[in-house]
Write a structure and sequence with these properties.
alpha/beta; TIM Barrel; three-stranded mixed beta sheet; 12 helices; binds zinc ion; Polysacc_deacetylase_ArnD; Glyco_hydro/deAcase_b/a-brl; NODB_dom; hydrolase activity, acting on carbon-nitrogen (but not peptide) bonds
Length: 367
């Protein structure tokens, strides 16, 4: 995994990343839900008759073009501070977008919603609103299909014994490439912290895709606030050292400083002490495992697949995900070896997972 050699490129912050704007969300939800219901009654009726399982030919679905969210953001900004006429126009535009999303999306619905018993009119309206929001978000970000919802987290985490996908020496944290599970889930992990793309934060928040960020302080520290925003939307923050060294070259004091120093730093910046540690370049020693364990680390997740904006690198010859696979990617800006944006990368991972019948789940629910 390369370390970006360039300094993080300053980028404009958008409102959606810094503070997603949903004014009066709870107060207005019931009314808005009924409005949307009335508008979309025909589409919803059609959806209710569909099987929630992913279509087997989802992989063959045409890839939607990258849909920049500019128009949707403009509509939101308009509604936030504009006159009633402009608000009505923005609302009509939003409803038209939701209808277009319904028409364009393959039929699917979140598993949780499919099995939910609905009590009364308002909860039914909220249910439908949530579905419409999921569909609209998926459409807005150019996904080929609605992402699959992961199953409920396992009541007992998988045992991490030495075996396929797991290396474990007695008394030391396990090194995990693939979590032992039969659930059709994969885990997305994002390393380093150089690029702080507000569009990526907005996309992650709107789609609700679980992720784990492994941060190296020398790259993340220019704006830990960005990562706190991700954290507020469900991204877990974990440890990737202070300065991204090759741990095989470090003595005991340096190991302590790099690993445990970043434990302390992240606890200070995020309010949570990490449990997971990813060694830079995937390289580690027994001393590194022992040092990490001494300051609160319980596992070293590595990876099987690696995601880029324009392709995926597969671990196995069948070029497919397997249950429990950990997927690596990076906080990167477009570059010669990174042909696209972080939203391009996320779109590619989510679409590949959905097409193969996998949901993206939270690594910390399993490790
Ligand atoms: Zn790294």
């Amino acid at each position: 995994m390369p370390t970006p050699s360039t300094a993080p490129r300053p980028r404009p912050r958008t409102r959606s990343a810094a503070a997603p704007a949903r004014p009066g969300r709870h107060r207005r939800r019931g009314v808005a839900a009924l409005t949307v219901l009335a508008t979309l009654a025909v589409g919803c009726s059609a959806l209710r008759t569909q099987d929630p399982a992913p279509a087997p030919d989802r992989a063959a679905a045409p890839t939607a073009p990258a849909a920049p969210p500019a128009d949707a953001q403009a509509a939101g900004a308009q509604a936030a501070g504009a006159a009633p006429a402009a608000q009505a126009q923005a609302q009509a535009q939003a409803q038209a977008q939701a209808r277009a999303a319904l028409a364009a999306m393959p039929a699917a619905r979140p598993q949780a919603a499919a099995g939910q018993e609905l009590n009364g009119r308002v909860s039914a309206a909220e249910h439908e609103l949530a579905l419409q929001q999921s569909l609209a978000a998926a459409h807005r970000w150019g996904l080929a299909a609605l992402p699959l919802r992961p199953p409920a987290p396992p009541a007992v985490k998988p045992e991490l014994a030495d075996g396929p996908g797991v290396k474990r020496a007695p008394g030391l944290p396990p090194v995990v490439y693939r979590v032992p599970t039969t659930d059709k889930v994969v885990f997305l992990t994002v390393d380093d912290g150089a690029e702080k793309d507000p569009q990526f934060a907005a996309m992650a928040a709107e789609l609700g895709v679980p992720m784990t960020a492994f941060l190296s302080d020398y790259l993340a520290r220019s704006d830990y606030g960005y990562f706190r925003t991700l954290q507020a939307h469900g991204v877990t923050i974990d440890n990737h050292t202070l300065t991204h060294p090759d741990l095989r070259r470090l003595g005991p004091d340096a190991l302590q400083r790099e690993i445990c120093g970043q434990q302390d730093r992240l606890q200070q910046e995020t309010g949570t002490r990490p449990r997971l540690f990813r060694p830079p370049y995937g390289e580690y020693t027994e001393a590194a495992l022992r040092t990490a364990a001494s300051c609160g680390v319980t596992a070293f997740p590595l990876w099987n697949e690696e995601a880029f904006p324009d392709h995926l690198e597969w671990r196995y010859a069948d070029q497919k995900f397997h249950p429990g696979d950990i997927v690596l990617t990076h906080f990167r800006a477009p570059a010669a070896d990174w042909k696209g944006t972080m939203p391009d990368m996320l779109r590619r991972v989510v679409d590949a997972a959905t097409a193969q019948g996998f949901a993206i789940a939270r690594l910390e629910d399993y490790l």
